[in-house]
Amino acid sequence: MDTSRLKTSMHELIRRTCTILPEDIIQALQEACRAELSGSIAEETLEIILKSTSLSSTTGLPICQDTGAILAIIEGQPDKTVFLVEEAIKDSVKTLTKEGTLRKNCVDPITEKNTDDNIGAFVPQIHFEPKEGPTLVSIMLKGGGSENMSAQYSLPLQRIQAGRDLEGVRRCILDSVHQAQGQGCAPGVLGVCIGGDRASGYLIAKKQLFRKLDDRNPSPLLASLEQTVFGEANTLGIGPMGLGGKTTLLGVKIGTAGRHPASYFVTVSYSCWATRRSTVELDAEGGITRWL
Amino acid sequence: MAVKRIISPLDPGVIKTLCVGDMVSLSGRIITGRDQVHKYLAEGGTPPIDLTGLVIYHCGPIVVEENGRWKITAAGPTTSMREEPYEAEIISRLRPGAIMGKGGMGEKTRKALKDCVCVYLHATGGAAQYLAQRIAKVEAVYLTEFGQPEAMWVLDVKDLPAMVTMDSHGRSLHSNIQEESLKNLNAVYEHPFLRKGQN
User: Fold this and answer.
1) In a domain, A201, yes or no
2) Same domain, A158 and A263
3) Which domain holds residue A101?
4) Are residues A13 and A135 in the same domain?
5) Residues A197, A137 share a domain
6) CATH architecture of the domain with range B3-189
7) pLDDT class for B66, splitting at 50, 70, 90?
8) Partner-chain contact A62 B61, CB within 8 Å
9) Are A117 and A159 spatial neighbours (Cβ–Cβ below 8 Å)?
10) A235 CB within 8 Å of a chain B CB
11) What is the CATH classification number for the domain harbouring A123?
C-alpha cells in the first residue's frame, strides 16, 4: 500500500462527502420542491436549500457549517491495511480541519476545551468489519442537531400505546418524527433498527442511512413498513425546517437485529436533509477504484 | 412574497411591525452566540459589547484566518431550542432586538419576546453557503476561550433572508405546527399497520 496515495484518497473521500450532497438526496429534494405549493414557505425553504447545496458543490465549501460527527467504516481483509487506512483518515481529518473544510467539532467533555483538530477520545469514530475482497471505506458526516433528535424506544410503551409488534414499531417511528418537528433539519432521512441492544441499536440504525433512497428492502414486510411510515410521516404537516408543508421526510430505511427476550428496542437515527455519506473501493495501492 | 428590509440594531418600533409569516431581509451588525455564550450570559457574564437591539444569531460558523483576516467559510443556524433555558433571561437583561436560529423556541422565550419587544427569526438550517454569502465582513471576535465555533463573532451582514416565526405579540408558528401535527399524528395512529393476510 502506498501511504501517500492512500492519504490522497481519504482526503478526497472526506472532502467530497462534506461538500457534495449525494445525487439521490438532491433528486429527492428537487422532487419535494416541485411537490410543494407554489409560493409556499415550504417551497421557498427547499429552494434556498437547493441553491445552497449547488453553491457548495461549485465552490468546494462545506454544505453545512456543522460538518458533523465523523463515522468511518472500513470493510476488508483483517491485515495491516486497516491500520494504514485508520491513520490516513485521522491525518486527512486534521488537514481538512486546518483547511476550514471541517469545523472544529470535538470538545473534551470534562475540560470543555475544543481539541481544535477533530481528534479526541473515540473521535473520529472508526469501525472495522472483516470482509473478503477489496477494501471499502465509508464515511458519514452526521450533523449534531439531527443526532440530538435520534431516539430509542423500549417496548411496550404506554404513552403511545406501542406494543411489541410492527404496529408498535410504526407508532414509535412516527412519534420520533413528531418529537423532532423541524429541529433535526427536516426533511430528514430515518435509519431505524428493530431489536438489538441499547448500543447496537443506534449503530445499526445509523448504518441504514448508507442505503440509497431508491433501494428496496429485501424483506417485503420491512419494505412495506418503510413505505407506510414514509407516506404517513409526510401527512403530518411538519414540512421543511418544521415550518409546515408536505415534505417532512425524504426516506425511511429499516434494519433488524436479534433481540434479548426481555428487550424490544426500536431505535431511530434521524439524519438531516444534508445526509452526507459516501463509500469508496480501494485498490492494493490505496487509490480509489470506484465510488459506490 | 413581500420582503421587509430590516437593519440591526433594531428599533422597538420596527420590531412591533414584524408578524409571524413575514419574510425579512436582514442587514447590519449581528453577533453569533450558541451554547457556551448563552450559559455565560444567562449566569450573569458581562457581554463584551452592548447587545441592545442587536440580533443574536444561533450559529457556530467555520472560520479560517487568511492573511491576518478572518474569513467565514460556512455559517448556517444551529438548533435554537438548546438555548431555551437561558434565552428569556438574556432577553430581559440585555435587550437584544431579535434572536435568529432554526427550529423555534419554547414558552419561556415566547413570553420574553412579548414582554421585552423582541422577535425570533428563522433562518434555513443547513443552508450554510447561501447564508455565508450574506456576511460582508467579520468585525470582531470575543469570548474565544469557548473555542472557534462557540465564540462570539461580530458580523456585518447584508440582505440575509429569514422569516419571522415568533413575534413580539406572543404568536408562534412553531407551536401552531406542533399542535396541528399532533392532530395529524393521532389521525394516522387510527389505522394500524397489518401484515399481509392479517385483518
Assistant:
1) yes
2) yes
3) 3-18+63-143+277-291
4) yes
5) no
6) Alpha-Beta Barrel (3.20)
7) confident
8) no
9) no
10) yes
11) 3.30.360
Please provide the average confidence, as pLDDT, over all residues in chain A: 97
User: Other CB atoms closer than 10 Å to residue B103's CB: what's the count?
Assistant: 27
Cell of A224: 412495506
Q: Check whether B199 has a pLDDT greater than 50.
A: no
Mean predicted confidence (pLDDT) in A126-149: 97
Query: Does B173 sit within 8 Å of A44, measured CB to CB?
Result: no
Q: Which residues of B are catalytic?
A: 38
Task: Examine residue A246 and state whether it is found in any structural domain, yes or no.
Answer: yes
Distance from CA of B64 to the nearest CA of A (A): 6
Whether residue B157 has pLDDT greater than 50? yes
Q: How far apart are CA B50 and CA A277, in angstroms?
A: 42
Nearest neighbour of A104 by CB, restricted to B21, B147, B188:
B147
Residue A125 has a CB neighbour count (10 Å cut-off) of 14
pTM: 0.94
Looking only at the bridges linking them, the beta strands covering A136-142 and A69-76 are: antiparallel
Domains of chain B, by residue range, sit at 3-189
CB contact under 8 A, A52 and B126: yes
* pLDDT at residue number B194: 82
Start-to-end CA span in chain B (Å): 49
ipTM above 0.90, yes or no: yes
The three cell numbers locating residue B157: 451582514
- With bands split at pLDDT 50, 70 and 90, how would you rate the model's confidence at B176? very high
All residues of chain A having their beta carbon less than 8 Å from the beta carbon of residue B126 are: 49, 52, 63-64, 143, 185, 272-274
Radius of gyration of chain A (CA): 19
For residue A194, CA distances in Å to A12, A142, A167, A228, B194 come to: 34, 21, 12, 16, 17
Please answer yes or no on whether A100 and B73 come within 8 Å at the CB atom. Answer: yes
> In total, how many domains does chain A have?
2
- Residue A49: inside a domain: no
Chain B residues in contact with A181 (beta carbon < 8 A): 103-104, 174, 177-178, 181
